[in-house]
Design a protein that fits this description.
- Helix content is about 20%, strand content about 35%.
- It is α+β, with helices and mostly antiparallel strands.
- It starts with a strand and ends with a helix.
Length: about 325
């Protein structure tokens, strides 16, 4: 996998023309050594009266649009092409990475600690300690636990023991709710794992972006979370830096994951937010379409289309 194309369309529908407030968009992927942006286009209808781009406190790319005219439909279509070259999560690390000895907080260096503290703070109450007990169930009963093993096993446990459910709107569940109900969306699972590792003294952040779902042979499981935006978590490990984990699909590392926004809390990484002015009954609904394709997928689709075309009159004449 190398060149990926992403199409993300969000359309709001209203009974009659309404006014629109400021809208903030996070559609542009973050560039790094493992993903390089080739092109990015954004079409908004109706056309904004003002549009500007900023970097937020985390360095995410944010587009801000303001509108002067009223309309019965508001749409945002982002088209992105990027070179995506994921690396193994622990590439270049010999053997096991740091071991967790149960100390709180985790032994980050004095130089890193001031910048990691806010990402180590727990954001949700755990009154009876259920979340921390669950997190500590991944520790060895004797001796020190490899963080590499601990985080991989926690990722796989959420993937195999929790049931995925689609919920396109609304805030993430609390970690204790997800733990009790054993079901949730990708953002619910990300928040659960993020808070669990924070209870062990590790720094963790929420990641929002897209998931590439390559075609799978019949009988193999399909990745969960495709068709709309996706969410996962990243954890800071001194030897490796920030390492990504997708508990929805049991992915360790960033294979098939295209990061767009990083934050301490999912509310800071909303793909699209804004307001409108009108009567309560004017709102009819929202449509979201997300498509992530590779060059290989497009070539295969083109070949299939070509083979499926009916023969021309000339072809029929030659064959008869």
């Amino acid at each position: 996998m190398s060149i990926l194309s992403i199409r993300h369309l969000t359309r709001y529908r209203y009974r009659k023309p309404v006014g629109f407030g400021e809208h903030r968009m996070m559609f542009r992927p973050l560039e790094s050594y493992d993903q390089r942006l080739i092109s990015a286009d954004l079409v908004i209808g109706p056309e904004p009266s003002q549009i500007r781009n900023v970097h937020d406190v985390f360095g995410n790319c944010v587009t801000i649009a303001r509108f002067a005219e009223r309309a019965s439909e508001l749409s945002f279509e982002s088209r992105v092409t990027l070179d995506h070259r994921p690396l193994p999560a622990f590439a270049g690390v010999d053997g096991e990475i740091e071991a967790y000895g149960g100390s709180m907080p985790f032994a980050y260096s004095p130089e890193d600690m001031p910048d990691l503290l806010r990402s180590m703070e727990r954001q949700h109450p755990d009154l009876d300690g259920a979340l921390e007990r669950w997190a500590r169930s991944f520790l060895r009963h004797e001796g020190r636990t490899s963080l590499q093993t601990l985080l991989a096993e926690m990722t796989q446990a959420i993937y195999s023991e929790f049931r995925y459910a689609t919920r396109l709107q609304g805030a993430a569940q609390s970690p204790t709710e997800t733990l009790a109900w054993r079901t949730g969306t990708c953002r619910d699972f990300a928040v659960l794992m993020m808070e669990a590792v924070r209870s062990l003294g590790l720094a963790a952040q929420f990641v929002s972006g897209y998931l590439y779902c390559p075609p799978r042979p019949a009988g193999l499981p399909v990745k969960l979370g495709g068709g709309h935006t996706h969410a996962w978590v990243r954890v800071y490990l001194p030897v490796c830096g920030w390492v990504e984990f997708d508990p929805t699909n049991g992915i360790v590392g960033n294979a098939d994951l295209i990061r767009v926004a990083i934050a301490r809390d999912p509310r800071q990484a909303l793909p699209l937010s804004g307001g409108w002015a009108g009567e309560a009954g004017d709102y009819l609904g929202m449509d979201v379409e997300v498509e992530v394709l590779s060059e290989h997928d497009r070539a295969g689709a083109h070949a299939t289309l070509h083979r499926a075309q009916p023969p021309s009159l000339a072809d029929v004449a030659l064959a008869s």
